[in-house]
Model the fold of this input.
Amino acid sequence: MHAASREALAALDKHLDTALFGIDNGVAVAAQAGAEIFDVVEVLDADRALRVAVADSSAEASQRSGLMSAVFGGKVSDFTAGILTFAAAQTWSTPREMRAGLVACGRRAMLRSAEHQGQLGQVESELFQLSRILDKQPQLTQLLSDRTATPAAKRDLLAKVLYGKVTAVTEALALQAIGRPERNPIDDMASLADTVAALQGRQVASVVAASALNAGQVQALEEKLGRIYGRAMSIHTEVDPSLLGGMVIRVGDEVIDGSTSGKLERMRTVMA
Done:
């Protein structure tokens, strides 16, 4: 995002959090707001004239907010309407970045709902595990990546896979992302997990080990990586026996390969 849009999104995040603070029935209000904001983004995606008009920085903020209210007032809750008019009053660099900001706001609302229920850690884990499942199921991933399929068809397919297996918030976030992809299904789910971790002040470390790690090993690794990177870490693990021993750790774009197979490969390279 450009600077103006980053400032607008920061203001929108703060406005949402303030509006939700201490509200009665915060779980339901936040979840409804997230779902309704996602629906509004779908409308803006389909209506070029409208999405340009509500993000037109040459118009007065009151005009943009008034237009947003006129179009969506009565179609969403009063709480969501307040979020939308506030968003329209901000200065966004482009209509595309405004829509990206609304998506981020909708996700934040959903995650605040999960937070109220004490489910943030579970949502983070479920989204990460979903990214790993998709990585190991190329046929499913290909279907979800099919550009000729409608967003509704892809969401229906993923909904059948997720039904009864994840929290409502995880399902809502995953279905929104799969119908409006940013990169590919695997990376988009992993990115959502990163977003949940960031909301908790943590950074994700993806750990692939030759054998399953116990709770003590995970905690020790969490503390060690925390000291290295200077922040709290969320450890997500998976098992790959082909590593023979040790583990491979990925934090952002950085990879630490301490696996036996990795060491053998480096030895073969040196001796070649």
About this structure: The mean pLDDT is 92. The chain has three domains: 3-117, 118-200, 201-272. The first strand starts at residue 202 and ends at 209.
